[in-house]
Amino acid sequence: MAEPLLAIEGLEAGYGPAPVLFGVSLTLAPGEVVALLGRNGAGKSTLIKAAMGLLPPRAGRLRFAGQDISGEAPWRIARAGIGYVPEDRRVFPDLTVAENLAVGRRPPREGLPEWTDSRLFALFPPLAPLSRRRAGLLSGGEQQMLAIARTLAGNPRAVLLDEPAEGLAPVLLEPLAGAILEMAKAGVAVLLAEQNLDFAAAVADRAVLLARGAVAFDGPMARVMADASLRESVLGVSA
Amino acid sequence: MEWGFWLAQAVSGLAGASALFLTAAGLTLVFGVCRIVNFAHGSFAMVGAYVAVTLLPPLLAWSPSLSVFLLGAVLSALAVAALGAAVELLLLRRIYRVPELFQLLATFGLVLVIQDGVLQLWGPEDIPGPRAPGLGHGVAILGERIPAYDLFLIAVGPVVLALLTLLLRATRFGLLIQAATRDREMVAALGVNQALLFTGVFALGAFLAGLGGALQVPRIPASGGMDLPIIAEAFVVTVVGGMGSVPGAFLASVLIGLLQAFGILAFPKITLVLVFLVMAAVLMLRPQGLLGRPEPPARGAIEGLAALPPPSPPLRALAVAAILAVAFLSDDYLRKVATEMLVLAIAAFSLGFLIANAGIVSFGHAAFLGAGAYAAALLSVRAGWPMEAALAAGPLFAGTLALLFGAALARMGGIYLAMLTLAFAQITHAVAFQWVELTGGDNGIVGVRPAWWASDRASYLLLAAALVLPAIWALRRVLSAPFGVLLRAARDSEPRALALGLPVVAMRVAAFALAGALAGLGGAVFAFSRGSVDPTLLAIPQSVDLLAMLLLGGVQAVAGPLLGAVALHGLKDAVMPLTDLWRLFLGLAILLLVLAFPRGLAGAWRRA
Q: For the complex shown, is ipTM > 0.90?
C-alpha cells in the first residue's frame, strides 16, 4: 500500500490531568471513508481534536500527505489540507451563509477539483436559496450542511467529521450520507466519528472501533455489521 | 436659559462623544477578537494626541489646509497603530494563555511605562494643539457661537462608524474579525492565521485610539494625565454599549457625552457620579449592554489559582514578633513604615480574598482604602469625633460604599466587573479631587491626629497591629467557613452554583462589602498614622500598587499579600529616592513578572 494520506501513530491526548487516548494508531487513504466508532467517552472527539491540533498531543506522531504535523497549530494543520467539522457545528451565527463559506475559503489544491460555491450548493441544495440568510437563523440540519460546506470551501484533502448525524431528523440522514459519498467520490478522505451505526454503515468502507481510548478493532465496516458479538463487546449495541 | 445655550451644550457633548467613540470602538474590537481588555488603550489615545501636537504644527506651516490637518491626524494614528502592533507582537502574544488578572496587570504595566515614556519625550507641560485650518471660527446658530471644529467632530463619529461597518461587513479582514469574535478556535480550524489576525486587529484598535486622541487636540491640549480618564470613560462606554459591539459603543458614547454636557449644568461637582448612576441603571436592565449579546460565562479570571491554604502558626508568631520588635527596639521611621505596611497588607489581603475566593478582580480597590481614610479624617477633623469613633466609622463607610457598588453591579461578574471597578475608582478619585469644599481637593485634609494614648509611633503601631492582624485572621476564618467554600463554588461555576440554589449575587455582594470594609479599616488606620489624606490615596495607581503586591506575593498563600505588601513598600522606599522613573521601573517590573512568573512569586516558590 502506498503511504496513507493521514497516519496517526501512537497518539496520546487528554484534558488537563485526565488522559483519554492511550496510543491510538490509524490511517486514512485518499477518497476513503473510515468510520470511527465507540461508546460515549471512548475518545472519538478527543482523537479528532488532537488530530486537528486543537488539543496538544502528549505523545505520538501525526503525518499528513508526507509531512510531519505533530504539534502544529490548528491553522497550519488546516492549511496543510485537513478540514474539521465540529460536533456542535459552530457556524458563525452573525454571518450569512455566503459569508460563512467565505471565512472557510482557501485556494484549491492540485489534483482536486475546486469546491466552488456552486458546487457546494449542488452538494447541499437546501443551502442555495439561503445564501444571504444569517447562519444563526438556520435550522439544525441546515447548520450541519453549512458547517460541512464551510470546511469543504477550504478545499481540504481530508475531512474530520465529528458526529454529523447527531440530533438530525431521520429524513435528513439520507441526503447527508449521499453528500459524504459524493465528497469521497471527489477524492476527499473522510474520518467520520459516529454513534449512529446504520448511518456509518451507509457511507464507510472501513471502521475503527475505539474502546477506552484504544483501538479495539480496525477492519471492514461489513465485518462490524456482520459480527454481533464484536458490536456487543465494543459498542454495547446488541441489535 | 436660551435654546441656543442648550444647543451649544449639546454640540459640545456630542463632539466629545465622537472622540470617545473612536477610542471605545478600538477597545471593543480588540476585546471581541483577542479577548483582552487593554488598559493601555487610553495611553494609546494619549500618545496619539502627543504625536499630533508634534506633527501638526510643521505640517500646517508647510501647507495650512484642512486636508493636511486630516493627513496629520491620520499619520499620528498610524504611528500609534505601529506602536500597538509592536505591543501585540512583543508582549500580548506571550500572555494570551495566562489568567485574565495577569493580562490586565500586564497591560497596566504598559500604562505606567507609557506614562513615563511620554513624560521623558514631551516633558511635564500640557501641549496645546493647533487649530484646524478652516475650522477655527465659530458658527452662529440660534444666537450662540458654536465652534466649527465641534461640528466637524460630530460628523466624524458617524463617518467612522460607517467606515468601520463597511470594513466589518465587506472585507475579508472584517469577516474574519466578526467570525473570530464569536469563535476564535473555529476560525483557526478553518486555516486562518490567528496570530496575524490578532496583530491586525490590535493595530486597528490602536489606530482608532490614536485617531481619537489626535482629533481631540484642537479642543483639549495633550497632557500626561489624560490616559486614565480616557480609559475609564472608554470602559464605561464599551460596557454600556455591549462588549464587542461597535454600534453599541457609538450609542453609548453619545449617551455618555450628552450626560456629561448636561450633567455639568445640574451637578457641576458630581457629573461623573451621574454618569456612573446612569451606567448602573442601564446595566441593571441590560447586563449585556445596550447592543451587546449575553456572553457565555467567561473562563475565570484566576483560572488555575488554588484557594488559600490554612494559616500556619509560625507565620502568625513571626508577624507578631516582628511587630513587637519594631515597636520596642527600632526608631520612629521604621515604626511609621511598619504601620503603613500593615495598612497595605490588609488592603492587599482583602483584595486577594476578593480575587481568589469571589473571583472578582477589582482594579479600584484603593477607592475603599481611600473612602475609609477620608471618612475617618473628615469625622475627626471636621466633626470633631474622637479617634476611636472615627476609626470605627472608616470601615463602616467603606463597607457601605462597597455594598452599594456591589448591589448595583455585582451581577456582572468577570471582566465587566473588573472594568467597572476601575471606572468606579476613577469617579471616587474625581469626587475627592473636585469637591474642594468638603475634601480639600488636591490638598486633602490635614491635621488628623490620633488620641493622646496612641500619639507616639510605638503605641500607634501596636494599635494598628491590634486592629489589622485580628481582622486578617478573622477573614482567614471566613475562608474556611461554609460562606468561603460556597463563594469558591460560585467562583468556579456560577451556573452550577445557581442550580444548587446558592444566592450567588448576594454572596458576591457580601464578599465585596466585607473586602471594602477591611480596606476601609486600613484607610482609617492610615489617616491617623499619616496625619493627612489626599486624593492620591484612592487614585488608580494606588489600586494597581495593591494588585502588584498580589502579583509579587501571589494569592495562593496567606503570606502572599503580606509578603507582597512588604516587598513593594520596601522597594518603593528604596527605589523612589534614586530615580524619577519609578513608574517606568514598576511598569517594567510588572511586565517582567507576568512574563516570567504568571502565578506570582509565592506561587513560583510553591511549585519549585
A: yes
